[in-house]
Fold this sequence. Notes:
The complex is a heterodimer of chains A (about 375) and B (about 525). Chain A has about 375 residues and is an alpha+beta fold. Chain A has three domains: about 45-120, no CATH class; about 130-275, Sandwich (Immunoglobulin-like), CATH 2.60.40; about 285-385, Cytochrome c-like domain (Cytochrome Bc1 Complex, Chain D, domain 2, Orthogonal Bundle), CATH 1.10.760. Helices cover about 45% and strands about 15% of the residues of chain A. Chain A has eleven helices and ten strands. In chain A, the strands form three sheets. In chain A, strands 3-2-1-5-8 form a five-stranded mixed β-sheet. In chain A, β6 and β7 form a beta hairpin. The longest helix of chain A is centred in the first third of the chain and has 34 residues, at about 45-75. The two termini of chain A are about 55 Å apart. Chain B has about 525 residues and is an all-alpha fold. Chain B contains 15 helices and no strands. Chains A and B meet through α1, α3, α4, β7 and β9 of A and α4, α8, α9, α10 and α11 of B.
Amino acid sequence: MHLNKIKVRFLPNFTVILSALFLLSPEILHAAWGLNMTPGATPISNEVYNMHMTSLYVVTAIGIAVFSVMFWSIFHHRKSKGAKPAKFSHSTTVEVIWTIIPFAIIVSLAIPATKLLAKMDDTSKSEITIKATGYQWKWKYDYINEDVTIYSNMASDSVDASQMNSGIDPNTADNYLRNTDTALVLPVGKKIRILTTANDVIHAWWVPDLGWQRDAIPGFINDNWTMINKVGVYRGQCAQICGKGHGYMPIVVKAVPEKEYQAWIEQTKVALNSKNSDSNKDFTLAELKAKGEGVYKANCLACHQANGQGIKGVFPAIDGSPLANLKENIPAHIHQVIYGKGIMPAFGEQLSDSDIASVVTFVRNNWGNKTGHVIQPKDVLAARKK
Amino acid sequence: MSTIAHADHDHHDHKPTGIKRWLFSTNHKDIGTMYLVFSLIMFFVGGSMAMIIRAELFQPGLQFVDPQFYNSMVTVHALVMIFGAVMPAGVGLANWMIPIMIGAPDMALPRMNNMSFWIMPFAFALLLGTLFMEGGGPASGWTMYPPLVLQTGKAFPYLIFAVHFLGISSIMGSINIIATVFNMRAPGMTLMRLPLFVWTWVITAFLLIASMPVLAGAVTMLLTDKYFGTSFFNAAGGGDPVLFQHIFWFFGHPEVYILALPAFGIISQIIPTFARKPLFGYASMVYATASIAILSFFVWGHHMFTVGLPITGELFFMYMTMLIAVPTGVKVFNWVATMWKGAMTFEAPMLFSIAFVILFTIGGFSGLMLGITPVDFQYHNTYFVVAHFHYVLLTGAVFALMASVYYWIPKWTGNMYDEKLAKIHFWLSTIFANILFFPQHFLGLAGMPRRIPDYSVQFTDFNMISSLGGFGYGISQLLFVYIVIKCVLGGKKATSQVWEGGRGLEWTLSSPPPYHSFTTPPKVTKTLMDY
Lengths: 386, 531
């Protein structure tokens, strides 16, 4: 079954590879294969692309020059052609020349690079400030001055398809591993300052179309900026190894016209304010389980696994654990989800009362855990007040 | 009295037999052999981890290993290849060749030599053992950045002590090399008559002594942060996670040259031999090597362009990094000028050396591009970087090591290797290594980060090509083992000189050399590298 899958996917791809190699048409290669850096969607990303191309042309030219001389020598100065070895062993003149020329080339690259770096470094006069905080493994975005905070998890179809031998073809997931449940919405044509920091370990925030990446370091705040010109959706992901879920923390930037951005901000504020509106409502076990499954997938599954077994020695199992089974541990269970423990992050801030109630109910009534315990949002609300 | 002892020593070429010969060995040739065999084993251990990585990346989705194990493969592959394969191979060559290249009877500190080798199997037992522990091996990347590395489970102290042991081993090896070269040269073997391989190793040894203690300090601070409540790298306790990166890369960049400089030395021995012409610009080669070594202590920040250094710092590191291209360029030009108007033949060592010059230079080109800070913000932590350092380390350092084995194995064993098979090994290695690593440039530019177990579907095709190249490269290396074993067991007898263009003291000894060689130092009256 498994081998078949490889074969089926492999053969058509291999045909494509071979035909592409024979055709070697630059346009085809560029379109289908993503051979080169993106010029991106901002003036800076475009300048970065140009600088990249300049340096690529320079090194290619040097390479062609040096290797041509070498291959000429390899073909002509060989013993089998009766070559007699020369005796020379140094020449101060050529040695000086080939020290000075590379130096000059380097200076000519360093000057525009310095100018570009200074431009990228200048975050002054920005109109909007966003703080991106890396978590294991999601991004949190604070719209400073707007009092809007959103969390951005990987979209659930990607989560499903990315499980070990999921049987789901990644091609069927929408932008596999590069799609989120909530996008970072930004207006076009405005200078936006993006601060990066982290909550647990070092991450790196990178959207290639914006032209840069920057580390997100706990205890540090890094300062960056962008100005997006084109309306569109730009995708990226965490670039610094940050543990097991490093490959699963996508970034989606949605660039929209100013008006649409304002509308989105207002709408999101309303949604955030009503986040805990159902805290006093009671739900049935089935309702809580259904909701809890989605919350589990977005927040818990990366460590505790789809089967609730965790990873021995790293992430504890929930299935069969006393914390998730014994009735007297319900308060401790809720407390741990709200405030975290050890490397387990605190979810109190990012999840609503009903989210926490439903996910706790879900894990207490799933796999081998058949406790029948029902935790209501008001229990969570009470635990928060303690 | 001493005369008698000396004469007595000269007489019998006796050696201990059985396991004792190897366990208690103080003979530079035996220890060199052990280093080389150990490094070949580690090359396959690290290589099989690379095969697991490439198998998982063959297509999108998770098929074989879970992400935590994938991360530990990425981490341990790097540690094994750097500290277990390339460095010990370099030390093994130094052990075997330096005494017979400078006309010394043995290394200066033979007992320490034994210890510096025998520490290594224990260090790797500690490191590789973690893979079988609950929670698995270290999975933070070989760079061990906190706070992530502090999340390592039971493997953590094993990782730290393995690194400590490897550091101690390297420092002892380096002290030995420096002591040997400065005290035991044959009369007339002046510093500027030293073969370039010896020069590059002396400089490498100084790099090791200067950088290894820094690494030891960094990992010790990790240890105390984890177990003794310190906060060197914990921002919440007043520490600084970026401090670790500064310390680590202050070691880490010289480490890159620790892997590369002996390779430069090997190539500088081989190209003149097969061009039948003296090395072009010997003095400038020595100065270029020294310049690279000194500059390597001033470029560590280029590994950290994205951590948010002040712009002045980024500019300083960008300029220094680009500057390294000048002495490195000088070396490449000198190698090409050595070939120029020579009378070349293309035996396996020469083929590997030519491939080294081309492919290492390609790695140098991408290195120059990576050194341009504003553009590095797009290359950083992508497969472009993976391609870059595998070009300089695999088609660079490892190709030079392969060249050196073919070059010197007739001297070591007394038998010629199978030239036809060696050429097949060369072509398979070169073709597959390029299929393996060249597409990774494209993956990086297209935006694929490194150290991820699974990827977005637009990266599928190049990953498939890369994996196929990887499997091909891995399988081809079995041929290398076969060639080496075949050569050890027999083959056409090698002459003392082995190669028509062989120059230097090592080619004046019989093949294989006597167990104790140059017990009476040879007299050197002029450069030995004339043609």
